[in-house]
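User: Show me sequence and structure for the first protein, then do the same for the second.

Assistant: Starting with the first protein.
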Amino acid sequence: MAAGVPPDALGRRVACGTDYGTVRYVGSVSPTTGIWLGVEWDDPQRGKHDGSYEGTQYFKCRHPKGGSFIRPNKANFGVDFLTAVKDRYGLNDKQDVQYGTGNTVVFGTKTVEFVGMDSVAEQQRQVQLNKLVDISVRECAVSHAGQEEEISRTCANMRHINLSKNLISSWETVIAIASQVQNLETLNVSENKMRFPSTSTFISSAFSNLKILALNQTEITWTEVLLCAQGWPVLEELYLSSNNITVLERPDTVLKTLKLLDLSDNQLLDGNQLHLIAQLPRLEQLILRNTGISSIHFPDAGFGCKTKMFPSLKRLAINDNKISQWSSINELDKLPSLRALQCNNNPFMDTEKNPETLIQLIIAKISQLEVLNNCEILPAERRGAELDYRKIFGKDWLEAGGHWNPEKNKPSEEFLAAHPRYTALCLKYGAPEEGELKGQQPLTLKNQLLTLTIKCPEKPEQKPVEKKLPESMTIQKVKGLLYRLLKIPGSELKLSYESSKLEGKEVELDNDLKPLQFYSIESGDCVLVRW
């Protein structure tokens, strides 16, 4: 092999300035002389061709212009882990003090001799390295572990390591580093395009204490995840975003301790892929942002029943997807432990123009939800959402066979499929009365707008706010707006208003289901907020 080219150069990761790539060819390129490296670049715009030159194909690229040839002296093949740590934390020889010849040290223009200075400085560096618990060598060109057992001798107390965006070419290198860190708990090796085992191999004990692992942008497949997971016996958090994972498999004997799984930015084949990971017993948080899913369905449970899938799932993120039907939101009520949901940027949210109504619909459809899109759902807000839902769809319920008399109450299967919680809401609050359903107006900004001043008399530091509200807006919806507007704690709100025409007279807004117009509120009046 030519000078400057490692014997294992083929397949190695290299850097050239700020560009990263993988060596796909080492050798001559006719008619030139000398050794060339054929590199497939991570950023195809850095390349020039597909690995061919003058009609000869030297290597292949995924992108037609993703490759180019560079001389070996232009390629950085990286450094060992400890060298990167010492450079990063200023603990290399050249970064302590400026050494002269032999056992001398230079202070300004004076040269002073110290007997045994080298060994003393080395001992001090060892002490400092042994104190490091949380180490980050991100973008430090780490490519290999270095001498055997050197890391364990030097950095015995490391627990958290950030190795992201380096020049690691294979999972074996990660094992070689981790096996020397006895109490490793957190490891981030994201943004290293590396090779992973494709068959079941010797299970290393390197990750016996590992709880958090990030493998974002590493090109790992789900099959490879399951093979490697045999060596992660206590893993609790696994981050796998942006890996082109499209299909999943059942993790029959692995990932039993997993509490968080991030699959965001992987275009999954369909929502049914989720069924394959639905039996992870301890999974509490699942992040599926931008995974291309268009529907969610739990076929093992009927209307109003709980699924056996995802038994421990508390937090779910499905934002930035293609979910267009409200039926998928209905399905989420089947999850027995769900408490928090993120669902912004899905087509189903465009079906309701009023954001307040949209939030209320989601709250009413998922009975145990406590946090929606990072906002706490307060008890009064849930009550109002459920009461409004019961009223909004009351006419549909009657037309579908619903009845105030329980013996005659037989809503159709179609209605129950669209509104699986409606029966439970009627049991909770009673069936909607006929008077509630007459002359119902949808909340739109076409209704008469009232210009009102919002004041908090018991909080003088809270400045008055002027808002324009539709006169058909219910008191409950006003409260929901104020929770978010004023960021008030989750206790019960009490509203009243002062008329601009009757100074000193305060009228309590005591019925959550009544609209503002019921209380004869007019533009210019002042709404008083207490809690």
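Switching to the second protein now.
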Amino acid sequence: VEAALTEAELEQRVDIFLSETDTLWMLDLPTAVVSTEAEEAGRVLERNKIYVEICNAKIDSEYFEEKMVQTISGAAKTKEVQCETITTAEKGMMVTSWDFDNSLDASEKESTKTEEATDTAEKSSKSPTAEEHSQAVAVPSATESAVPARSHEERECHSETILTSENLKQDLVVMERILMENIFQPKLAVYRQIPVLIEPVVTSDTSMEEEEDEEEKKDEKKQEETSSKPSSLSDVNESPAEAAAASLEQLWSYRCDLTRGHSVSSMAWNKVNPDLLAVGYREFVSQDQKEGLACCWSLKNPMWPERIFHCEHGVTAVDFSLASPNLLAVGMANGHVAIYDVRSRSHAALLDSSASLNKHTGPVWQLRWVQQDRGATGGDRKERLMCISGDGRMTQWFIQQRLDCFDLMTIKRTQSGKKKLPGEKERKSEAPISQQAAGMCFDFHPEDTDIFLAGTEEGHIHLCCCSGKEQILGTYRGHKGPVYKVAWNPSSTDVFLSCSADWSILLWHRDSHTPLLTFTSVTAFVHDIKWAPKSAFIFVAVNERRVEIWDLSVSVFDPVLSCAASPGGNLSSILFAKNAQCLLLGDSCGQVGVWQLHNLAAPST
């Protein structure tokens, strides 16, 4: 019986040393490359003995370290073999998944047949009774019914693996793009300004002769009509503007079942890929905010977006980055800002402002990536994300491990004072500020990125500066309703436009606090305006039902074109195409129509 240990012995520290025991070699067969009967066997044994002595001498050396190396293979033995020439041939065949299933079924049927044959042979030798004979007949039928059931399950599993494979999805995307390009080929050719390919009609000889006769008769009728009527050049009453009036032709629309019922809030082109378009969607039903969408559309498939990002709240603003073209910034109606990576197929946001302490409390009505140093190139070019919100704050966001911001400016609500006389200068009000004014839009100067315009809900436009003590350099008062959009002229950089809910469009000069021109054609809200990218006189505006094209070189009273471009809903946003003479119009039904511009004036700076 073992003696019990005391408490002192239990608490005593005991050191246990583990050491490696000697290796017991059960069998050791050293490799031999050279035969012992060869002539060089003695020299090889002597070299091996010297090598063993060198290894034993370097065991305790500090400059020696044992490593595994690749040994030199021994010399190949010479052998002479005589045989017939070996002929090779290549053979191949197409095998589908159905062939594998058929071969599997055939092998299972053969195995069942052999089992049935052996069973019948054994039972026939035993002279079975009537009951045994009936059982022997019933057993094969059960096995035959089990084999098709098993093969049916295997077929279902195999079909599921095929349908869920990534290779099949990628092949279907490529096939879908090919079909879409075939369907939309004439429209895409017009968009890219290349000749339209027309398929030749194959007909018989008799039908070709009849068609030629009909074409000759049509040409004769046209010649008679033109000879009877005066030509357009000789007609005195017809002006050249009427002869070549501006017009719009719809090519296609970006729409799908997901976007139906949503309203297009904003659009933005990718800075590097001019065929990639980002569209933000929101939906308001009985003052309740529903889920929003941010979709990336491509010219390769106008029927379904390439990327779909579902947002908890309505999307109010989108814009692509220039420094990192794969980053898409999205502003939402609840004040959140999210950044998505369009290269990834994940629907989750790369960065989100939900954890930021300085996040907006009102809707983010507009956001934009702005270059900080336009003259710099390469790595010296910096970019900042600017946002304006309904909480009266203009913020600048910085991207690190998380998304956070700081206030660039706080828009204060101005008190209503007495009306100014036409020649009286604007005076600064020293009255106490009651509350903040909601910001609606902004636009940075095309040449000086420190200067920007900010439109407010109370109808004022502030000229602001990012650097300096005084943030607000001046205020332009002319609108009686919320300012929905402001836009600098890209050619004449001292002139800018503004549109408002008071049904008017105002043309301003930077040095004048009174509008130069007022454009009003219909009694409807003007939601968006855009200058033509290559002309200083042409701009486009959209109100609730119509799109208007104004050319200041032709008339300042009436637009050169005014037409209804969305019969099913109200127009909400507008965008010019980068590499085509086209116009994109977004409406409240979730459609983005692509329209071709015809007979516009030549670009003038």
